[in-house]
Amino acid sequence: MQQRRAFLKTGAKVAGGVALASMGISTLFADSNNSHRVNAGQDTQGVTLLGDSKIPFKNGDRIPARGYAAFGKEWKFKPYTFTRHPLGENDVLIEILYAGICHSDLHAVRGDHGSPIYPMVPGHEIMGKVVAVGSKVRKFKVGDYAGVGCMVNSCGECEACRASKEQYCTNAKTVFTYNSKDVFHNDENTYGGYSNNIVLSEKFAIKVPKNAQIEKVAPLLCAGITTYSPIMFSKVAKGQKVAVAGVGGLGHMALQYMVALGAEVTCFDIIDKEEACKALGAKEFVNVKSTRFSEFANTFDFIISTIPYEYDINAYRAMLKFGGEMAIVGLPSHADSPKLDSQSLIWQFQNKKLYSSLIGGIKETQEMLDFSVKHGIYPKVEIIKITELDSAYQRVAQGKADFRFVIDMKSLA
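Request: output the structure for the sequence above.
Response:
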């Protein structure tokens, strides 16, 4: 009897956030010394309300979520309620504070890059706060800031995953943040960051320091790493002449990283962005519609193209110096593919290198975020309400966004 009373006394701690790991129950750790970090209350059914948005939580149950979804190829969003998989022993539950709008979100909704699954909740640029953790989680505690990028899981066993290049998982088990089959949770569809919470393996959550400008962090998890990774791969260094083709959400991040590394940056775009580019450290800005566009043959050590529409790849490749490298990270629709003339490619010679790149692995993403915060490198953002999604998509498509839109999730009523 005394043992049973002791067990019941210990079990009662679940209401305060600690469950019995010995019973195989996923543990919910609450920070009792910092209770303001977790807005928690428990009803008679054992449901705990977590975070400022009061996320209903009950150990072992699916996590209720709210967001905005596209129900077809039109850029029209409506409120949508759904559930996420239960919190596993290695998982974290994150209350989403901010979510960025990536140009690829527009393509995803329209099905430009593959088959869309509707209703679709986009968003792979996520900044939030940890409100619950599983029993084996050691990377995070409740109250920590955390970010989520373009993927939430992978096999962890193949050569790519072991090298922390999880986006290239050779077992085809990379689980992307939305519109993706989650092979680790009964093939259910994944939903992204235009919502109030997300559950994922702690390995795929990025630690965000408390001194970060949290309203600007979300776009780093896609736009930041997508440009940082090839810049590191090509070893951009001080004194090199480099270029950015397309200065939008991705391009203005590439510009800042290469300036921080001491490179001399020239920017190319079809819209006049000279003032904005030079304010971020560019030496030159060139409108591609001008006659100056043809003046840069054999000039650059490195070029990064973020252009998401049809363009002539060889026109930029011709600007590379002998042995120069060009990275392509922009993702146009299949119907709007860039041109790459094979004859021009062959006859340009000079060992000029051309490659494409997809985001970055989790280890490198953490390095990118740490580097960004240390050097004060953030995207230019415009904070919007979630009810402004439709108009924001139109502005992104028209090239009228002031680099990056970020949704304030407090607006999700």
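DSSP finds ten helices and 21 strands in the chain.
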